[in-house]
User: What shape does this take?
Amino acid sequence: MVVTAIVNRVQDSTFDADILLIERFLAGDQGAFETLYRNYYDIVYSVAKGVLGDPEEAADTTQEVFRLVMRNLKRFDRRARFSTWLYRIAINRSIQQARSLHRRPRAMPLDAASAVSHETTEAADPRIQQALQQLAPSDRAILILYYWQELSLAEIATTMQCSANACKTRLFRARERFREAFERVE
Assistant: This one.
């Protein structure tokens, strides 16, 4: 049964390579989840750190995201991309954590939030860091997904469970709020 499902997925042109690892994990192979964890840890941590602004809180949230994924992997809709589903969980959990802290995260270097996926040769402007930290977690999340994780509007819309037009509007508004915050920073 599992082999048939995997063969059908391989023949499907929208095959997500992670599906094979998911199927193996659900069949009892713990090593398959460890591979997913290694493949996506840095990305999830980068998103969490970008939203939360604190490395320790980001590490804790990243662990919680992977616990949620492990617990709910059997409910993952295999017609979707695993990475999109994972981004959605990471963003939602990071925003929930930021709200539960009832405080503004400390400033953190923007290049540190994306150091895993982007090499930077110059230090980020501290004014950008300060302005970003003044934004709501949901605004930081959409800006991080668009500018640092380089997701398309369609991918962000899927991740944030909204239409592409709503995503475009949210991104526009987040940019405007960022611009206003940046202008206030001295």
